[in-house]
UniProtKB/TrEMBL annotation:
<dbReference type="GO" id="GO:0006751">
    <property type="term" value="P:glutathione catabolic process"/>
</dbReference>
<dbReference type="GO" id="GO:0005886">
    <property type="term" value="C:plasma membrane"/>
</dbReference>
<dbReference type="InterPro" id="IPR029055">
    <property type="entry name" value="Ntn_hydrolases_N"/>
</dbReference>
<dbReference type="InterPro" id="IPR000101">
    <property type="entry name" value="GGT_peptidase"/>
</dbReference>
<dbReference type="InterPro" id="IPR043138">
    <property type="entry name" value="GGT_lsub"/>
</dbReference>
<protein>
    <submittedName>
        <fullName>Gamma-glutamyltranspeptidase 1</fullName>
    </submittedName>
</protein>
<dbReference type="InterPro" id="IPR043137">
    <property type="entry name" value="GGT_ssub_C"/>
</dbReference>
<dbReference type="Pfam" id="PF01019">
    <property type="entry name" value="G_glu_transpept"/>
</dbReference>
<dbReference type="GO" id="GO:0036374">
    <property type="term" value="F:glutathione hydrolase activity"/>
</dbReference>
Length: 258
């Protein structure tokens, strides 16, 4: 699809996939939420005292989604989105948005020492990465005494950093499990035995060149949000737009609810 035009896989309309954030948030809210979907009222009561935020076009968009989240996929927002993407060379159609479906998946699980179990987000999220880090570090059986002296502290943080290097290098190989077979890689990354093997590659006396960790490509990173309320409910969301400023395409005019 991008043969000979690799830049279009990062910038412009063709770099944009079918947006899933609105429907994903709506599905989670529908099944697990307690607060009303249009959480912000017309007076902005949830904003800090004295704050001033004026984004009129975004306000219209969020109001439309608050009134009807499906308008993003089968309404005026979908038409505006497709029109803007088409103008930028995109190939997403109104039918693509209309047919979008949320997929529910099972979390990854790592059995930790002491009978604990770590459940986390499956690939292409970073749950396997977190599991991989902990599986490598588990064998060190870290205690408060490991940072009691400067010498022990240096070794301890060195081990943690090295575990992160191996884990985030492996992350560069992760893809969407619905399109790429990464089942064996995820099994390895959530295995205490595999973590033990990788722990044997950590040298307490030195670090290693980048090639030692077998990273495939660079990554531009994500934005993450974790929220815990007084009732023990937990929300963990990762938002990714691939590279800096995403595809560099933004909506010019979105529909109003008035």
């Amino acid at each position: 699809m991008f043969a000979g035009i690799i830049d279009k896989s990062r910038n412009g309309g063709m770099a944009s996939g079918v947006p899933g954030e609105v429907m994903g948030l709506w599905k989670i809210h529908s099944q697990l939420g307690k607060l009303p979907w249009p959480y912000f009222d017309e007076n902005g009561n949830v904003k800090p005292v004295g704050s001033l935020i004026q984004l009129p076009e975004l306000t219209k968009t969020l109001q439309a989604i608050a009134d009807n989240p499906n308008c993003f996929y089968d309404g005026c927002l979908s038409k505006d989105t497709v029109a803007d993407l088409t103008e930028e060379g995109g190939i997403i159609t109104v039918e693509d948005l209309k047919n979008y479906q949320v997929k529910w998946t099972s979390p990854t699980m790592l059995a930790l020492p002491g009978g604990y179990k770590l459940y986390s987000m499956p690939a292409p999220g970073s749950g396997p990465v977190l599991s991989y880090i902990l599986s490598i570090l588990a064998g060190y059986n870290m205690q408060p005494s490991d940072v009691a002296t400067k010498e022990r502290e240096i070794i301890t943080y060195h081990r943690i950093i090295e575990a992160f290097k191996f884990a985030f290098a492996k992350r560069t190989e992760m893809g969407d499990e619905f399109f790429v077979d990464i089942s064996q890689m995820v099994i390895n990354m959530t295995s205490m035995e595999y973590g033990e093997m990788m722990r044997g590659l950590i040298d307490d006396s030195k670090t290693q060149p980048t090639s030692y960790y077998n990273a495939v490509t660079d990554n531009a990173g994500n934005s993450h949000l974790s929220v815990i309320d007084g009732q023990g409910s937990v929300v963990s969301i990762t938002s990714a737009i691939n590279t800096y400023f995403g595809s560099k395409v933004s909506e010019l005019a979105l529909c109003s609810t008035t």
